[in-house]
Amino acid sequence: MTLALAARIARREMRGGLGGFTVFLLCLMLGVAAIAAVGTVRSAIEVAIRDQGAVLLGGDAEMSFTYRYASEAERGFMERRAERVAEVVDFRSMAVAGAGETAERALTQVKGVDAAYPLTGRLVLDPDMPLAEALADVDGVPGAVLDPVLADRLGLAVGDRFRLGLKEFRVAARLLREPDGATSGFTFGPRSIVRSDALAGSGLLEPGSLFDTHYRLLLPAGSDLDALKREAEAAFRDTGLRWRDARRGAPGMQRFVERMGSFLVLVGLAGLAVGGVGIGAAVTSYLEGRVETMAALKALGAESRMIFAVYLVQIGVLAGIGIALGLVLGAALPVLAGPLIAARLPIPVEMVVTGRPLAEAGLYGALAAALFALWPLARTREVKAAALFRDLGPGRRQWPGWRLGLVLASIAGLLVVVATSLSGVPTLALWTLGGVAAALVVLALAAFALSRIARRMGKRARGRPALRLALSAIGGPREEARAVVLSLGLGLSVLAAVGQIDANLRGAIAEDLPEVAPSYFFVDIQPDQIEGFRARLDGDRAVTKVEAAPMLRGVVTEINGRDAREVAGDHWVVRGDRGLTYAAVPPEGTRIVAGAWWPEDYAGPPQMSFAREEAEEIGLRLGDRVTVNVLGRDIEAGITSFREVDFGTGGIGFVMSMNPAALAGAPHSWIATVHADPSAEAAILRDLASVYPNITAIRVRDVVDRVSEALAAIARATAIAAGVTLLTGVVVLVGAAAAGERARVFEAAVLKTLGATRGLVLRSFALRSALMGAAAGLVAVGFGAGAGWAVMVFVMEGAFRFEPVSALSIVVGGALATLVAGLLFALRPLAARPAQVLRARD
């Protein structure tokens, strides 16, 4: 046998066209296109982040501090190494338009800038003007630029005035694009920009107020960023310094893009697995139509290996065509939709086709095609020359043999290795692939069980001929039920899982959280304001609960004299600065689980109470000593107790609490949560904001809405990817219905000969399709609920509640999809004349 001869035979046979391979090509094309499109978009965003790192960051490097400005030593360090330095002050505040009871208030993220800002990039304003001109004083009132959302919310037009704290500002322009906006991360309010020196006298940046300072550095060409980072961290290691540079100008956004892109690629792999079912079914159907050709080749002396090679070449060529079409479609879609995608991103992105995402998609497609096509191809070796003279039936062996079995196992293993290594999230990739494999096994078992149940129930459906015929067909020797349940069931399973997860997340945010969360979260309450703040709320019957606590920020630098990061690793408590409070007595509701609180009048060496769960994760014990740097001062405290802290209630919770004497003299502010009737919220905000304009109020409902918006965007992206999977399943479903059309023509002819009417035949076909679709939907609901439970409990660490509406829609949708597909291919069988059909089969 020579490969050249096999290729020649394959080429001559393929001259007759690609009939029967439409489903094969569509399944492969859709799966590859989905993965290629997601990869292309992710690659374009990553390139934009990398190439525009300095613009996104606002400079070549950035040194940030919390609740303080840079010291003289830190500022001197920056000025000696940078050509230019820009200072940015970032904090939350209330913007107020109007006065008295008619005043409008809205939370805003304020950015105070100096004359050097922006070092890189350009702000786009409406009307168009330089930022310095927009922020300049006019008639003694400093200018400000506002996000259009904030301006519209407050009803402000260009030239109108509003207040931040005690200071009045003038709206000079609307902010259309902020070059460094992608580095801001999640914010509670729209942006406003003012001059830093214009904030003097506003009462917003008092000692202990919550604010961050960012110092952007424009460095000389060729600067060694690694060396500068090491030098800065060594010099100011324990001062709360945070370093970023242009190599990762927007790390939060980059991590999100990487994780979301990887997840969507994995969902695309699930779609490719659905397509694999169609590939296997299409190859099986095609080869069954070539049995006579194979038998003729056998009669002419061809070996089994030659026949296998002939059809392997054919399937390989067709797979190449399907993969190529998928790559073209996957590359074209992001380019065509580029303007729409770029408009929804905070950075300018150019959609260009690159080689790596296309190569990855092509590799996935080739491995999937080989995995699902080789099994049915192995049956070509079992065809005998006697098939020329009689139908040998479906009794050929199903197992492809141990050699090909090893090849299939190797391909499956390679697919797992490729997915785990290329996705960037190996654990998620393994779970996803394991879930897809488990779903295929469960669906195959469900199809087998459906056939057995239908076979038994068919014998009992006397007096209902349409139902009995439908059940008999489902329980018959043909593999129609398996193809329908596998293809449609896997697509619906992905959609069901997405629906359950989305419904549970929305339920947790929209229903559970408001029942326990406060109405407002107040920050920047100065120590001399806390008594008046409490007095206003204590006399209000609509207020059900008030919690207040002093708050400082500190960096955990050492544990038992060792570097905290060496002891705790990358635990979130030792990453950057953390909230810190003090109390003479345990706050109400505190549950101490080990040790004891210090005496109320304790004035000895500093003592600390630590959150139990975080202490266990770090490995802390009673008596351990923790050093915290607070505004440049190291405080070493011994752990004397552990307490339960629930951060999920929406109330006040601190990992670390110390005795008051340990933090005496440290500048700080207070934070508070207020639980009140919704009808009283507006009055509470108006009264407190009027008396204490420096206080910032964060409405919990607004935070919930922002989180819900983010979840909705993620859910939409995931639903689109799941929709591609479902579309592939529908293609496979249509292919299965088309492949069974010839058998249904013969079946209808026999039934008509025995006296069945067209209506009876049609009802039996419709019932058969609907029952198989409903079965696929029920299995999908069960598997989707299981996947949703696993994600909510083990990944989200929340509770799971079965959502019946989406489950019902999945079952009904599955039944309708199969019914429509079955009826589309029932027209020819119903129109066939029995005599012509039976004579042709004679």
Automatic annotation (TrEMBL):
Main location: membrane
Name of a matching Pfam family: MacB_PCD
Residues annotated as domain ABC3 transporter permease C-terminal: 267-381, 720-829
Positions of the MacB-like periplasmic core domain: 24-233
Membrane topology value: Multi-pass membrane protein
Annotated TM spans: 263-287, 308-341, 361-378, 399-422, 428-450, 770-795, 807-827
Keyword annotations: Cell membrane, Membrane, Transmembrane, Transmembrane helix
Localization of this protein: Cell membrane
Keyword Membrane part of the UniProt annotation: yes
Name of the protein described by the UniProt record: ABC transporter permease
Species the sequence originates in: Defluviimonas salinarum
